[in-house]
Structures are given as structure tokens and as C-alpha cells.
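Researcher: Next sequence.
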Amino acid sequence: MFPLSVRQRRRVLVADLVSTAVFPLAITGATAAVPDVTAQLPGGAALGPWLVLAYNGLFAAALLLAGATADRSARTRFFAVGNLLVAATGVLSALAPNLPSLVALRAIGGVGAAMCAAGGSSMVLAVYPPEERRRVYGYAGAVLGSALASGPVVAQVLMAVGGWRLVFVVPGAVAAVAALATLGLPGLRDPEPSESFDRAGAVLFGVTVAAAVTALGLGFGSGVPWWGPAVLVLVAAACAVGLVRVERRAADPAIPVDLLRIPAYRAYAVATGAFMGMLVVGLTVLPQLGSAQRMGRGEAAVMLSLLTVPSTVLPLLAARLARRLARPLVTTALFACAVTAVVLQVTDRPGALLAAAAVVGLCLGLTEGVPDGQALRYVPARRGGAGAALFSTARMSLETLTLAAANGVMAALGPASGAAVAGAVCLTAALVVRKSVPPRGDRDSVSAGSAGSRTRRGSASPGCACSRGR
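Model: Next structure:
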């Protein structure tokens, strides 16, 4: 832990929260801009989806490497560089002469976003003790929820005011503000950073994710010959095999597997992935159901607002409830999401759809940031970037798999079946949390972070960190 003043710690948190707001806007803005961009820039309409896919794919691919690098460097400087990279690519995107160059800039922006996310978590966990992280991630949940809920509206306003170029410039400007907020702060570099750095493992992980995401994107009507995605799948498989071999031999693996051996960390990662999967599937499924198709614009807007707005106004309340009720709060919300998915299998009346959106929205709002805060209490400060990166990677993987499975089932059985898939994932996550997190573990795990800092691979088991915390 770095002994900063209260004012300095608040500046660290504010910088991270400002940067956190950029990611949802960068995604929703690019999604909204695709039709106009493809109509105005040369390069082929098939590249349009890659404005989002390139950003997301490189974000996921670079996240683990960024987390490991942040922990071994001056954290605030690393975070500032990531935000400046996002700012630069945002401005250059508005000046892009064609679609290929814009897609390339978006990919670079995704790397910058990974540096922001990993660097922000690394510096926050380096200055806030485990007992305060729940409150900190309550603020992060409120900002992220607000950005997710308001992102589509903000994107449409920007499009109306300044065209598609503005939706790239504004997130870049916000990222620049986050970078400026770190001026004058200490670098937060460990006096004796670990000399061992599993670069091979981090790079192989990134290539595996990038190849898999690219293959998935090319598989949907891009006009690329079949062998293109097939080669990428083989590359991803080969890199995954190589990754396993490298990680087994590494003294300090890039993938902090010891954290995944901590039951509570693993369980809360599954829980937050299930919640995000329920959100993205809900946004996809609800508008496609029969009654929703017959709703007017006002009713449809209310339904989507019920699903998203609670994540804007409830996370701070969730952080307070999580002081003593994190485990029952998370499991109850997961069970409620599962029950709601069952209800959608038997009725799609307007009232039922509105009630389902309200229940899911309430569950998401009351748990926004809670699993994150609980899981990261087990991460020692010196490994904050890697721990947060692994947590985010696990969450994104489960969210992506849930959406992919839901889309496949929906194609065969209809829209409501997609909700059943998300509900099944939520039910499974609830059972995992109940089994893995002790009833009193949320209140008594404060010392886990300090215990975890003494845990080294091969010298002590991660389970000891949890038992010390209890």
C-alpha cells in the first residue's frame, strides 16, 4: 500500500472514475455511427461491424498484458499513457480517410482502453486498503451503470449535433481529462518490482484472444473465404496449447492462476459475468418478444429504461448493503433473474415484459460493482492490475459465451429461449456463490488482501489467503 493523503487518494479515484465512463460511450457511439460511417467513408460496408469488434477484441486481448505491466511500472503514468492513447486515437478517428484506417485506429484505441482499465484498477488497489474497496467499487459501479444507461442517448445527441466524427472525439476528450487528473500524483511504482515477467504467456494469451475474436467476426457474412476464419481458429488453438505449456513452466505466470483458486474470487467472477450476460441478452430478447413488437415507442422506451436506469441510481445503495449482505444480495439477485427468465417462457404479455425488465433492472442495479468489490478484496495491492485484469477477462468471457449461446438457441427456438439460457447461467452462478463464499466471508475477508500478498506460487496455497481472511 502507498501512504497517500486523503486528497491524493481521492484524485486517484476521480481519475479512474472519469476514465471508466469512456468505455461504454466508446462502444455505444461507435455502434450508433456504423451506418453513417460506412455510407461516407470508402472501404466496404463489410468493415462496419469491425468498428466495434476491433476495439472490443484488442481490449480483451491486451487486458492481461496491460495488467501485468501496470503492476510493474509507475501505475499513474501507465494509466495516463493509456488515456492519452485513447484521446489521440479518438481525434485521429475523426480524421480517418477510409474505413480500413478507422478500424486500425479503433484497434489501437482498444489497446489504450485496456491500459486505462488495468492501470486504473492497479493504482486504485495500490492506495485503497481491502476494507475500503467495496465502497470504491460502489462508485465505479454507479459511474459504469450511468454510462451504460445514458450511452445510447448521448451517442444519438452527438450524432445529431456534429455527425459521426463527434462520437469518436468526445470519448477521447474525456480520456484526456482523466490523464490530466493524474498530474502531480506520485507514480506509485513498487520499490522492488518483480523482476520475472512472463511476457511469453501474456503475448500468447493476447494472440489467442485476438485470433478467436477475429475468427468469430469473420464468420458472419464478411465475404472472406471459409479458410480465413479456419486458419485463425487453428492459430488460436495452437497459441492456447502453447500458453498452457508456458504457464506451467513460468515461475511467475502472466495468468495469476492462484487467484482463480480462491473460491470467493472465482465465484464472484462467475456472478458478475452472469449479470452482464443477463443484461446483454435482455436487451436483445425483450424487444423481439411478441408483445414488445406491438408496443408503442413510449412503452418500449419505458421497458428498456426499467432494465437499464436502476444501474444508474442504485450502485451506491448496493455498496452500503454489501457491507454485511454481499453474499445474500448477489445470490438473491441471481435467483430472481433465473425466475424471471422462467416467467418469460410462459407469457409475453406487456405487463409481464415490463415486470421482467423491472426485476432484472433492479437486480442489476443492486449488485452493480458488488461482485467486483468483494472479489478484489482478496487481491494483494502489488498485484492489483493483474487481479483486476483476470477478473474482467473472466467476466467478459462468460458474458460473450452467454450471448453466443443465447443467439444460437434463439435461432432455433425463438426469442424467449435466449432468456432461458441467461437464466440458466444466473442459476448456476447463484449456486456457485452459495457454495464457494462462506456466509460470514464478506464481513471477515478484510485481511485476505494482506495475506494474499504473502502468498507466492509454490510456497503457499491461495486457499490459505482465504482461510486467513476468515
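Model: The radius of gyration is 21 Å. Residues 315-346 form the longest helix (32 residues).
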